[in-house]
Amino acid sequence: MTLKAATSLPDARLFLTDAPVMTKRGVTEAGTSKESGQLRVAIVHYWLVSMRGGEKVLEELCRMFPQADIFTLVCNRDRISDFLKTRNIRTSFLQKIPGAQRHYAKMLPLMPFALEQFDLQDYDLVLSSESGPAKGIITRADALHVCYCHSPMRYIWDQFHVYRHGLPWVGRALMSITAPVLRAWDVTTSSRVDVFVANSEYVASRIRRFYDRDAVVIHPPVATDDFAVGKGKGEFYLYAGQLTTYKRPDIAVRACTEAGRKLVVIGEGEQLPYLKSIAGPTVQFLGHQPFNVLRDHLSRCRALLFPGTEDFGILPVEAMASGRPVLAFDAGGARETVSAPQVGFRFAEQTTEALLETMAAFEEVEDDIDPHAIRAHSLKFSSAVFRDRLSGLIEQQLSSHRDGAAGVFRRRPG
């Protein structure tokens, strides 16, 4: 039996272009979503158990792609923003394990299995928000996967020994056994990403080191409009953030105790009892505080003390959006944010002595610092700049992907 064409064959030149796609609703342009023509978007975030820098980025991604579905390993709806609560959030099987919302970090060996259970075959664009293991999801072969990397997993790479030493002997033994397997999985899954976007040059260098991949640097969004320049000269230094070892709050506490300077500490963590034991009468601990209290203290402080090493560090930019200078350790993202002489000082050694010397230098010129110039500098890191740069990159990559040129940012051998 011979099949006859209903119409005559078209000009052969038409076969050089993309073929039309036949669906139940007729012909759609090649490369669009099969049913509606709308881009189907999935956002994969490692876990949703608090509102920190990574979750602020997630909110901006949701504003850029309001049709997106969120996939996350574990979600505590009581500790996320009202905005995120309105989104369609899908969790993994880890959510059903008792205590998962508090002890999710202990489930790290199970996370690769949980991620790969997510079915993303209906999505054209997948955005992974990576700090834990988020990029390891499996996408459709022709989908575009863009990974916004806040940090390669610190606890299995450069911070492995710091985290391991803080565990009891059983935890240290388990971490020693599972970490090599997780590292191998982490490196292997980097090939599932079409484009890496790093939140700083510092993170981009770590992506090159651990994954042998290049990354486009787009700084994370800072809600600079939520802050305003304070009035008058501040009377106290401020430390804010988690009170954990690698952030080195002890340097700020010791420096202000020795210098007899007022210091307000906002935050909580396992180091709090130790910090109180070394603090003098000029140091005040406020514990965890809501955003409005933090914003008020940022607008009234003399300067923010930032002695840790962060991948980017949103808090220094928030301080600058409040017109306040930053005294930061010369490492990590601070090199990219505290990057002009009018916005603060960086100290070369992560020691109390180095911070004391920097405080003395700052106080000599404190009266000459212009708060409005500091705020103007902070606007380079605004949410609007983030949205413009990331949307432009994604549009470019979607176009290239449809033309068969995806992966141009991958590092090629030789």
Please give the structural blueprint.
Elements: E1 21-23, E2 26-28, E3 41-45, H1 53-64, E4 69-72, H2 82-85, E5 89-91, H3 100-103, H4 111-116, E6 125-130, E7 144-149, H5 160-165, H6 169-189, E8 195-198, H7 201-211, E9 216-217, E10 237-240, H8 249-259, E11 263-266, H9 272-278, E12 283-287, H10 291-300, E13 303-306, H11 314-321, E14 326-329, H12 334-337, E15 344-347, H13 352-365, H14 371-378, H15 383-402
Parallel strand pairs: 3-4, 3-6, 4-5, 6-7, 7-8, 8-9, 10-11, 10-13, 11-12, 13-14, 14-15
Antiparallel strand pairs: 1-2
Which key terms come to mind for this protein?
Rossmann fold, 15 helices, seven-stranded parallel beta sheet, 15 strands
Describe this structure in words.
The structure is a single chain. This protein is an alpha/beta fold and 414 residues long. It has 2 domains: 41-221 and 383-404, Rossmann fold, CATH 3.40.50; 224-381, Rossmann fold, CATH 3.40.50.2000. The protein has helices at 53-64, 82-85, 100-103, 111-116, 160-165, 169-189, 201-211, 249-259, 272-278, 291-300, 314-321, 334-337, 352-365, 371-378, 383-402; strands spanning 21-23, 26-28, 41-45, 69-72, 89-91, 125-130, 144-149, 195-198, 216-217, 237-240, 263-266, 283-287, 303-306, 326-329, 344-347. The strands form 3 sheets. Strands 5-4-3-6-7-8-9 form a 7-stranded parallel beta sheet. Residues 52-225 form the Glycosyltransferase subfamily 4-like N-terminal domain. Residues 231-366 form the Glycosyl transferase family domain. It comes from Rhizobium lentis. Pfam families: Glyco_transf_4, Glycos_transf_1. This is Glycosyltransferase involved in cell wall biosynthesis.
